[in-house]
From TrEMBL:
Top-level taxonomy: Archaea, Thermoproteota
Gene Ontology molecular functions: transmembrane transporter activity
Major subcellular location class: membrane
Protein topology in the membrane: Multi-pass membrane protein
Subcellular location: Cell membrane
Cellular component GO terms, alphabetical: plasma membrane
Membrane-crossing segments per the record: 12-29, 36-53, 84-101, 107-128, 140-159, 187-206, 235-253, 315-334
Organism for this UniProt entry: Thermoproteota archaeon
Domain of life: Archaea
Keyword annotations from UniProtKB, A to Z: Cell membrane, Membrane, Transmembrane, Transmembrane helix
Entry protein name: ABC transporter permease
Length: 345
């Protein structure tokens, strides 16, 4: 294993271990056995076949978003707007499905429109970044609020369901609903699409294509990449747009596989969770897949832990926050330990 890959593995493990250590201290301070807490989290995520499926259901939108973020992060374009891009893609896909109605073409067209919705929303900060040099962290983050609030208005007024009278869309037609693969579970086709289609496709793009090589070259040294003839601004634009397209896809798969309506609470923060996953997985698709399942297990298992031990379910947000901090700090800590001869990289 190369030193770079070894450093990435150490960084992820180091962040996870420190996160669990700090979380354990808070469990102890609240008179809770941390080993028992982690046991209930594990049981709540993998205790039986239905719980395992629910963990993969939760991991699916997170995985798709994180794979998109990995593309932009590899060239140091920090897309913080996946949450808003998810909402835009989900909304456009839902509207398309409802307008087309029952048809063999409803799902594929709505699916494509969800990609377009996320891509178009991402293209605005992408243009600002590539042509105007405006920091994408600020623009993508602020556009989350515009997107979410705009869609809340759409669902409260022009696209409000006349049947339920709640701020949500009509139910999408049956022809656009993803089929259930295992009866009496929520194992829908979107899980297969995410893990067996999107995951290997993004892995191929990143590791085997010229585009993937350009992403890496720009991420390591944009000026050297420009000197080598790479159109840096074009690649930055495409990376952010592709990232947004995948976020939009994740949103519509959540609608077509689980919700069946567009709701203002379609995402519990998947766009932000995707940032944690991409960083924890070191922008490597395989690492991202494992990290997606890991975080999904913590999210799902925490409800069981909360119920059994009377602990706040908000521990999930606490764990995610710690992971971001330690992933960002671990690189410097590990390199320092390597210079001191404590570990070998």
């Amino acid at each position: 294993m190369s030193s770079l890959k070894l450093l990435g593995l150490y960084r992820a493990l180091f962040a996870i271990i420190l996160t669990f250590l700090i979380t354990s201290i808070f469990f102890i301070m609240s008179n809770t056995n941390p080993i028992l807490a982690y046991y209930y989290i594990f049981v709540g995520a993998f205790g039986n076949i239905n719980l395992i499926i629910e963990t993969f259901v939760r991991a699916t939108p997170i995985l798709i978003i994180s794979l998109g973020l990995a593309i932009s992060f590899r060239c140091k374009v920090w897309n913080i707007g996946a949450e808003g891009q998810l909402y835009m893609g989900a909304m456009l896909g839902t509207i398309t499905a409802i307008v087309l109605g029952e048809s063999y073409f409803t799902f594929p067209i709505a699916f494509i429109m969800s990609l377009i919705g996320g891509a178009l929303w991402a293209s605005i900060p992408a243009f600002m970044k590539s042509k105007l040099g405006i920091n994408e962290v600020i623009t993508t983050f602020l556009m989350n609020f515009i997107s979410i609030n705009f869609i809340q208005w759409l669902l409260a007024f022009p696209f409000k369901s006349p049947e339920t009278l709640f701020p949500e869309s009509d139910r999408i037609p049956n022809s656009s609903i993803l089929p259930i693969l295992i009866p009496y579970t929520r194992m829908h086709l979107g899980i297969i699409i995410a893990f067996l289609l999107i995951l290997p496709l993004i892995h191929f793009i990143i590791t085997k294509t010229t585009f993937g090589f350009k992403l890496k070259a720009i991420g390591e040294n944009p000026e050297a990449a420009r000197y080598a003839g790479i159109d840096v601004e074009k690649i930055l634009f495409l990376a952010l747009v592709i990232s947004g397209a995948l976020a939009g896809m994740a949103g519509f798969i959540e609608v077509a596989g689980i919700q069946f309506r567009m709701r203002p609470t379609i995402s519990p923060g998947y766009g932000y969770t995707g940032i944690v996953i991409a960083l924890l997985g070191q922008n490597n698709p395989i690492g991202i897949a494992l990290a997606s399942i890991f975080i999904a297990a913590i999210i799902n298992g925490s409800s069981t832990m909360s119920r059994m031990l009377n602990q706040p379910q908000g521990i999930v947000d606490f764990i995610q926050g710690l992971l971001i901090i330690f992933v960002l700090a671990s690189d410097y800590i590990l390199k320092y330990m390597s210079r001191r001869g404590l570990i070998k990289l």
